[in-house]
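Minimal example, chain plus FE2/S2 (inorganic) cluster.
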Amino acid sequence: MDYSQMGLFIGIALTVGAVVLHFTRGTPWRASEDISKEVLEHRAKSVPETDFPEPMNRSIGGGGAVAAVGGAEGGAELEGGEAAEAEPGPGDIPEDEIEYYEVEFVKEGETIEVANNKPLLDQGEDQGWDLPYACREGSCVSCAGKVSGDANELVEHDNQQMLDENEMSDGYVLTCVAYPRGEFSIETNEAP
Ligand code: FES
């Protein structure tokens, strides 16, 4: 066999080999087993339960389940219509039960009649006075003032979060959420 025959033979052999390889089916692809459920179940056992609803379902039977239960309960309550109603606040006084008190605003130099269904700050502003305030929801002390007596008795706060019992006993009030419950004088812009 000369070189040209040998070359031809090798060429044919390679071609046949390539064609055979091309048509031979390899090992078929199989998806690996889905173990995600198993992993989640294992994780559910190792992650402690939370008793608050989580934004993401961290584990099977975890926060997501609690949130779902809470949501169902919440829905039931809402359907009942009672839980959806807000608690009446100190300003929720029916028209025919509104009372008025004489309150002296010492620094403003005037005594005015204030209603018991409106915060002192609002009623002072109704007079055109530029009284201090910031949050208007009882969570800073910008609007603080001092009344002439025990503020626990003279005003009713609507959810104030800044003054303790002693400070209120000393007469300090947060005028933005303080509803008058008696006659007194008040010094505005006085913080404990
Ligand atoms: S303005 Fe913040 S507590 Fe009254």
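The helical segments are 3-23, 36-46, 63-80, 120-126, 151-154, 165-169. The longest helix spans residues 3-23.
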